[in-house]
Predict the structure.
Amino acid sequence: MSHTIKRPRHLTTTPTGLYEANFRRLLHLLPVSLSASETFSLAQAKITIRVLQQFKYTTVISLKKILHTQPEPYLTVLSHLSAIDMELRICHDACVVEVIGYQGKSPIQSLCPYPNEDMLHIDEKRQLNLFLKDVLENALRIAC
């Protein structure tokens, strides 16, 4: 008697699986066609997406999410945390999306030496792509 274990079609444990899953999530939020320098907002999720560069097989977009709608006096110290600002590269032919910039810092290295000057995680790029997954899932939950 043989047993087969059915695995999910796309695993998110590998970097490529995570990039592909984020691509599918992003497709549900983006309009059918994108044009260069276009900006659009998902009002319910408070996300603004702007096309920065567009080529035949890749598109670079800026994804911004406002975290606080009303400024609180005690948040002035944390004003740099009031929004998420990510730069994403979408590869249409490979059907993947990856974070290439975060909060104005670019490029993001796959492996960072530790300890480092900015106290980044050893796997900073993976952590940011997992964070993108959470942001996109939250936006999909709000939008649907």
Remarks:
- The longest helix spans residues 124-143.
- The first strand starts at residue 39 and ends at 42.
- Helices lie at 15-29, 124-143.
